[in-house]
Design a protein that fits this description.
- The chain is of the alpha+beta class.
- It folds into 3 domains: 3-60 and 152-290, 2-Layer Sandwich (Alpha-Beta Plaits); 66-132, no CATH class; 305-342.
- Helices cover 35% and strands 15% of the residues.
- The protein contains 11 helices and 12 strands.
- A 4-stranded mixed beta sheet has the order 10-1-12-11. Strands 2-5 form a two-stranded antiparallel sheet. A two-stranded antiparallel sheet has the order 3-4.
- The longest helix has 40 residues, at 302-341.
- The chain starts with a strand and ends with a helix.
């Protein structure tokens, strides 16, 4: 009876409520703002303190620059001081007419009212910008899409195979990979092994006292029949959590719906990858469009790492220690003989 999280990219609006909820529940603290300059994404990638990042992707077969279209009145206002009238005009140009004015100026005919309502929006940036494009196919128009990035909680987890001290373990009953921080030595082998680039080392690891961190699927919550914090906080219900079999079925239904709407490359990522992931993702297009490996694999060297290399290393260390012990005892005996001869 495994559980899984379903991420539906086609529903995600990029609000990043899941990022905030993750930090608040797990009390991971904040990163240095200087290391993460302001941009569309809050972070370029996961960090030791940030286990969940909403990545932004601009998708579309054809892309074009934006042309700035400004009225003469607006250009005149740019030359003046920051007066109240100028600010109000800029506000009106960006946001459209206020709702009250909208109703008053469209009492003439129903068709005019409908036209004005269509043009009006909270952020009517098209008042300023129009795309210089000849695109006629709606699916070719560039669009923003978002993917929640974090631990995939793999069945065949490379991080578990790489860890020399078994600090990473999998709960097969509930379906998550958890890190035991007290056991972790900060060697970083799991960081190199993960095909999704998820585990992150603390900066103190270079001095020998750092640890690794990553998402734990809110195991402390799901063990008490609660949803993960990120799922609980998602406003558009782009995140779901439940029995894995049910999440696979729900995800496949969403894929069928997307394909009917023209997304021919829609794909449920994680159903079969690495023995099955416990974080499934509804992708409207190919995995590579969302910075995901199309065929993630456990590195070949890990297949013999714990079975052959690590045991041989232990034997080599034990043999070296034994030889040093014999040498020490032998030196003591030789010293005592020399003392007796004198």
């Amino acid at each position: 009876m495994q559980y899984a999280k379903l991420i539906d990219i086609s529903k995600c609006v990029g609000c990043r409520a899941c990022e905030v909820a993750c930090k608040e529940w797990n009390e991971t603290g904040i990163d240095d703002p200087k290391e993460h300059p302001f941009g569309y994404q809050s972070h370029e990638d996961l960090t030791y303190r940030t286990w969940n990042v909403v990545k932004f992707f601009e998708l579309g077969n054809k892309k074009s620059d934006l042309i700035v279209n400004k009225t003469d009145q607006f250009n005149e206002n740019l030359e003046t001081d920051h007066t109240k009238d100028k600010l109000l005009f800029q506000y009106d140009a960006l946001l459209g007419p206020e709702p009250g004015n909208l109703i008053e100026t469209n009492l003439g005919s129903e068709s005019e009212l409908e036209s004005e309502e269509i043009n009006y929006s909270v952020w009517q940036v098209t008042k300023f910008f129009n795309q210089n494009t000849n695109i006629t196919n709606q699916h070719e128009i560039p669009k923003w899409m978002f993917r929640k990035h974090g631990c995939m909680h793999c069945t065949e987890a490379a991080c578990i195979k790489a860890c020399p001290v078994d600090a990473l373990t999998r709960n097969n009953e509930l379906g998550y990979v958890r890190l035991n921080v007290s056991t972790c030595t900060g060697c970083g082998y799991c960081v190199d092994a993960c095909p999704f680039d998820v585990p992150k080392l603390d900066s103190g690891a270079i001095w020998g006292f750092g640890k690794v961190s990553k998402c734990r699927l809110c195991s402390d919550r799901i063990q008490h029949n609660k949803q993960p914090a990120c799922v609980q906080s998602c406003p558009p219900n782009a995140l779901e959590f439940g029995l894995r079999s049910e999440m696979v079925k729900l995800g496949q239904n969403r894929i069928d719906d997307l394909k009917e709407r023209g997304y021919k490359d829609a794909y449920l990522y994680g159903e079969n990858e690495l023995g099955g992931l416990n974080v499934l993702t509804v992708l409207p297009s190919k995995p590579k469009d969302f910075d995901l490996p199309e065929n993630p694999k456990v590195p070949e060297y890990l297949n013999t790492w714990k079975k052959v290399v690590q045991p041989l290393g232990v034997l080599a260390i034990a043999g070296t220690a034994l030889m040093l012990g014999f040498s020490f005892v032998n030196n003591l005996l030789q010293g005592s003989k020399k003392g007796d001869s004198h």
